[in-house]
Amino acid sequence: MNGQLEDLKKDISGCEKCDLSDNRTQIVVGDGSPGADILFVGEAPGRQEDKKGRPFVGRAGKLLDELLEEIGLEREEVYITNIVLCRPPKNRNPKDPEIKNCTGYLDSHIRIVDPDIIVPLGSFATSYILDKYDLDNGSISNVHGNLFSVSNLEGQFKIIPQYHPAAALYNPDLKEVLVSDFHKILEVL
Ligand code: URA
Questions:
Q1: Cα–Cα distance measured from residue 124 to residue 37, given in angstroms and rounded to the nearest whole number
Q2: What domains are there in the chain, each with its CATH number?
Q3: In sequence order, what E strands does 38-152 have?
Q4: Are the C-beta atoms of residues 125 and 46 closer than 8 Å to each other?
Q5: 75 pLDDT exceeds 80?
Q6: How far is the CA of 45 from the centre of ligand 1 (A)?
Q7: Residue 148: beta bridge partners?
Q8: pTM for the full model?
Q9: Which is deepest, 36, 67, 95, 150, by most CB within 10 Å?
């Protein structure tokens, strides 16, 4: 693993900035290639992720793997993390203070991985990423599959928000939308 990511992992270990530390089994930092062109940002670990210490290893993760395969990518070629790194009890939505306490770690991931494309998955990640780069924020149903370009001191990169794969587990119609939106990632890669 890249030394900077190792250092970040050490910084994060034992984090007790919020109450999510009380119930977690472990912090789920991130997974994948440190030199990835694409950084996926999910919401928060679920039960399986909390148990295994890796993001997207449950049912939503299986669908994410399928979507990656659909565009000819393997999980090892991308980097995956979440805006909140500890499992919220009963998989509830992360609360604002939990997100605020944790996004410094996401910002560090973005600096270190330095991706060409950031793909926020779902409304929480999309809202944080679009706000961070002062982009017009809308609901995920309006911005999914849209291409945003950023050029700043950190460099140049693109953002393509996606519905969260878990949403397609509850609403199968969204799977087709996700497949079509994932192909847009390929178009700019
Ligand atoms: N959902 C997420 O947003 N992140 C995970 O790691 C797993 C499920």
A1: 22
A2: 3-188 (3.40.470.10)
A3: 38-42, 79-82, 117-120, 148-152
A4: no
A5: yes
A6: 5
A7: 159
A8: 0.97
A9: 67
